[in-house]
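Okay, is this right?
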Amino acid sequence: MSRPRPLPLDPIEEAHRQWTEHGWGEVADGMAAVTSLVRAQQIVMARVDEALKPSGLTFSRYELLMLLSFSKTGALPMAMASARLQVHPTSVTNTVDRLEAAELVKRVPHPSDRRATLIEITDAGRESVAAATIQLNRQVFADTGLAPERLHLLLQLLAEFRQTAGDFDSGGSPTRWSGQ
């Protein structure tokens, strides 16, 4: 994938300057942080989409297939998949519909709960997610654009941000990234 030509200046730094100049200096750092995170997400997702293009998977479909492939039985209840992926159940249903149409997963009755449905990865789903993982590892995860020590710092900061936002509860013990 060719990288776009860089802009002659950092637009977020310019927005920060403008925010300060317009009297919002006390929140300019927060605006710049949020805007930087959103822009970083756009950059990363463009790289992920490019790597996944040959597989025909979107990132949400890839995540669900990986979740299933990591599970002990290759199957999970829809509600559990929704909780683990931290997405609304409707999003999981939509993703499962598309993966089922592609014969990468199938819905099966829960063995002990007639109200629940399991999502089960198929052999084709395992093959597809394995090939996609090779591409993601090669094209995205192996080269984040940061030196290892800077990447570790970013992981620490993002874990702290996510925990403070209520994304997870470490139960009082430090996360792997906390450096403790």
Observations:
- The beta strands are 75-77, 105-109, 117-121.
- Helices lie at 11-52, 59-70, 78-85, 89-101, 123-141, 148-164.
- Residues 57-135 form a domain with the Arc Repressor Mutant, subunit A fold (CATH 1.10.10.10).
- The first strand starts at residue 75 and ends at 77.
